[in-house]
Design brief:
The protein has helices at 53-69, 101-108, 112-120, 212-224, 235-243, 245-248, 256-259, 261-264, 273-294, and strands spanning 11-19, 25-37, 40-46, 74-82, 88-94, 137-144, 146-147, 153-154, 157-158, 161-163, 182-186, 193-194, 201-209, 227-229, 312-322, 325-334, 337-342, 345-348, 350-354, 357-362, 365-374, 377-382, 385-389, 393-394, 402-405. It is of the alpha+beta class.
């Protein structure tokens, strides 16, 4: 009979170890991989929140002892299941670098792949244990082609549009964190197809900060700038996850996602004025650019024709499809300017567009986001939440503006 201790709220903490053929073995500190879905990791971080120096040393030395006991050589990951009181228990050892090894590289400034190559070539480890230091905090989010609202089922399709935050790759001898503190490890690019035959992970988004709060802030910004069109992803879910109270306060265990289901899987939010305004602005900008392309004379005033009417105003009715709903919008204009009317709200409407980056002035409110237009579909991304708002213009959206008498 085999009896195992049952932990009610376990944390998944692993130790990165390295050993060479000269008898040297070190640990490069720990990673917390407690945030999981279907027993697969979603977010990882280093160092583990709440880790004391005494416990770190105890877990590191235990991991090194395990590696030495089997004469291990190379990179390895010793995984532990840890109790909330700090006690820990050996779970397994993975004899390779893990997906989440970049967070260790970010806090130590070491290139672990280079270490592997040096050890394989017969060289000694580059550093001894007392030469290794922790610098700052790092987080890694796994960007998956999957649908979190459908039990995280994989999603397939073509990456028709892919925009990522500015990032730099790890550089030996330079600043490992990069000017933006953001690193992206990816094997795909825009236009690639995600098939059902391989793991649905698109990329690893890694951030560094001088402490956990700064790393969290940087991760929120990076996720807001990660835009994908063509298939379902977990980006919006990851945004909710890093903003959640449980993760923000490091109240971690392997059941975090299930415990916070109401927060992480909220009902669909209604489309607000700011979102619809961005879609309308993108529509108007596209129509203006199309008129310029079609015009034989680029200097003709008709190329810049809008809703202006002599001695009168103009009203244009727009209809967007949003899922199973239709959203009716009215845009009026006169000598005083434009007004957007939506859901019984009216606001002044002024726009500034530069490529897919759009800013809208709604009187006392401002809206800023990126809009990717595909045919009659509008995919709107805002800094507040990385969400894809898709709709299509329908009749009478493309109808000629209706003139009305001047008041």
């Amino acid at each position: 009979m085999l009896v195992e201790k049952y932990l009610t709220r376990p944390r998944h903490i692993e130790i990165q170890v390295f050993a060479d053929t000269h008898g040297n073995c070190v640990y490069l500190f720990e990673r917390d991989c407690s945030v999981q879905r279907r027993h697969q990791k979603v977010l990882e971080e280093a160092p583990a929140p709440g880790m004391t120096e005494e416990r770190r040393r105890a877990m590191g030395e235990a991991a090194v002892a395990a590696a030495k006991a089997v004469g291990y050589v190379g990179a390895g990951t010793v995984e532990f299941i840890a109790n909330q009181d700090g006690s820990f228990y050996f779970m397994e050892m993975n004899t390779r670098l893990q997906v989440e090894h970049p967070v260790t590289e970010m806090i130590t400034g070491q290139d672990l792949v280079e270490w592997q190559l040096r050890v394989a070539a017969g060289e000694a480890l580059p550093l001894k244990q007392d030469q290794l230091r922790i610098d700052g905090h790092a987080l890694e989010a796994r960007i998956y082609a999957e649908n979190p609202d459908k039990q995280f089922l994989p999603s397939t399709g073509t990456l028709r549009f892919l925009r990522t935050p500015p990032a730099v790759q790890f550089m030996r001898g330079g600043d490992a964190h990069g000017p933006a503190g953001i690193r992206i490890d990816a094997g795909v690019r825009e236009g690639d197809t995600i098939s059902p035959y391989y793991d649905p992970m698109i990329a690893k988004l890694i951030v560094w900060g001088k402490d956990r709060d700064e790393a969290l802030s940087r991760m929120r910004q990076a996720l807001a700038a990660y835009h994908v069109v063509g298939l379902s992803t977990n980006v919006a879910f990851l945004q909710r996850l890093v903003k959640s109270e449980a993760f923000r306060t490091a109240n971690l265990d392997t059941g975090l996602i299930e415990r916070n289901e109401a927060t992480l899987f909220p009902p669909p939010a209604p489309v607000g004025m700011e979102i619809i305004a961005l879609a309308v602005a993108a529509l108007l900008d596209r129509e203006t650019r199309e008129r310029r392309v079609d015009a034989a004379d680029q200097h003709s005033p008709w190329t810049h024709a809008g809703a202006w009417r002599l001695n009168g105003g103009a009203t244009r009715a727009l209809r967007f499809a949003y899922g199973s709903h239709t959203l009716d919008v009215t845009l009026t204009s006169n000598e005083r300017g434009c007004t957007l009317i939506y859901a019984d709200q009216a606001a002044p409407f002024k726009t500034a567009c530069q490529a897919d980056d759009i800013r809208v002035d709604l009187g006392t409110r401002r809206a800023h986001g990126q809009v990717h237009v595909e045919g009659d579909d509008f995919h709107v991304f805002t800094p507040a939440a990385t969400r894809c708002w898709a709709g299509s213009t329908r009749s009478p959206t493309r109808a000629r503006p209706r003139e009305r008498a001047a008041s």
